[in-house]
Amino acid sequence: xxxxxxxxxxxxxxxxxxxxxxxxxxxxxxxxxxxxxxxxxxxxxxxxxxxxxxxxxxxxxxxxxxxxxxxxxxxxxxxxxxxxxxxxxxxxxxxxxxxxxxxxxxxxxxxxxxxxxxxxxxxxxxxxxxxxxxxxxxxxxxxxxxxxxxxxxxxxxxxxxxxxxxxxxxxxxxxxxxxxxxxxxxxxxxxxxxxxxxxxxxxxxxxxxxxxxxxxxxxxxxxxxxxxxxxxxxxxxxxxxxxxxxxxxxxxxxxxxxxxxxxxxxxxxxxxxxxxxxxxxxxxxxxxxxxxxxxxxxxxxxxxxxxxxxxxxxxxxxxxxxxxxxxxxxxxxxxxxxxxxxxxxxxxxxxxxxxxxxxxxxxxxxxxxxxxxxxxxxxxxxxxxxxxxxxxxxxxxxxxxxxxxxxxxxxxxxxxxxxxxxxxxxxxxxxxxxxxxxxxxxxxxxxxxxxxxxxxxxxxxxxxxxxxxxxxxxxxxxxxxxxxxxxxxxxxxxxxxxxxxxxxxxxxxxxxxxxxxxxxxxxxxxxxxxxxxxxxxxxxxxxxxxxxxxxxxxxxxxxxxxxxxxxxxxxxxxxxxxxxxxxxxxxxxxxxxxxxxxxxxxxxxxxxxxxxxxxxxxxxxxxxxxxxxxxxxxxxxxxxxxxxxxxxxxxxxxxxxxxxxxxxxxxxxxxxxxxxxxxxxxxxx
Length: 685
Description:
The protein is about 45% helix and about 20% strand. By secondary structure, the chain is α/β, with parallel strands linked by helices. It has a six-stranded mixed sheet with strand order 7-8-6-9-10-11. A six-stranded parallel sheet has the order 14-13-12-15-16-17.
């Protein structure tokens, strides 16, 4: 409206210029009169002639000039309209309810059905609804596919102010008062070509992967010497053929390590088949007693090739740390796991344990004191492992402390033997608050039986020292303790106590376990192996034999594990209320009201349920202190670690768990059922 007013004033002033010029000439004529009368008379005659001519021209040409202006404006408007109509960009005008009022040729050619659009533009674009129609101050942008092409729709709402000449400025009530004057401009941008270029560019990006044979030496030892070269050739052939199918470049780095590079467009193919190379290689059998298993690590969507390689290395380390026989895809902080269904084969060599023992000894000797902690609501395994590390520190004449906040019923009988014992310091056990006061940069922090920072007894101490050691037998997840100087994680081990028992044998001649310490560690192995029935290997019994030689008394340990009548009734009630889901999965709730450590009872119930015929896995849920704890157990048919990871937990193949916050018991049980059902449908169980 303002621009229109300015144009009108300019035209009126243009037609008034003869009047202003006439006044100027008359003023000049009067001035000359005082100088020379004859000249003034002569000039007055010319001024009079000019006035007469100007009046005649103004009266005779005014209508014609205005007519020409009107015709020019009309022609100009027609040109604008024609240009807009023939504009190559699809453009349309809608009312505030989404009815098509006008569309240019390009827009009408695309939508074809103009009549349906006039009823409602939603008939043409179902993705567009009344809820996402634009407001005055905000455009609506939609990306959609229409007639096999990709478009970006931009909808902009405008108010025709010229309809109300009195409105000059917008206020907060302007939109409400001018709904009838609102229009929606719709622009369509064809993104098909640029999207295809983006997709092509993405598909051409290179992915770096690492492939390791988990049990190269062990598999070769399980077969006749004459067939070993054939087994190696078959594995190589499987790997190379698999890589050819994805147009990959593969290079053998060592006898059991490969690096490969392929295009991103083949990643979906690998993921959809869940990295079938794992099954193919595991299926090779030419008389070998042990199946060959692979681990793969892939780095995806890295900014540089070096970053992609770092991603691949982190992924393969995670795959190996989780027990091998699986593929891990790392995309930034996102991690995806595939495989991991087979039982990790125990390593017969103790070389790694000896190397880790020497490294741990050097770290202990370099620090003033040692602080040990396990996972929250510690169990017998974490307690026994902490005792073993405590003995190492004391053997090397270092101050040592164990962080423990809550003493469970299973740990209490063992811990009571250390309390008020003259052989041990009064500050042997500390709470989290006490530990935070003494931990500094001259402290070695040893974490046992857990590798996830949020599950530790005291998360805060992790940031108080730079020297952290991790000893654990649970499979790793994407959540890890940062900057650990020594990490010894072996998923094949039955328990952390087994690992610590091996380390103890390489510390030095001066180390001697006391009976109470040997009992605690032996008890840890017994609990985590369910009395040597689960995940036991040759090294498990060797560790138990070492502890037995150190004075472990099985009779005392058995007495310590007896439960009272209330706990036994809770176990019996949990078993009686069990539900068998999908014919093979036992699910029940452990109601531990009045019991000191209901989570420990839940774990016992989970072990007990495996004795039922046709039960492949058990899941016991226990509510305790605002959280719901899930204890998952299996024998060999189901990888409960993968199930628990879907819920946010972890563990290993036969023993795993998870914690759920902010959920009711019914919701948690349904979550377990939904996870099992989905995994079974997708073939992951």
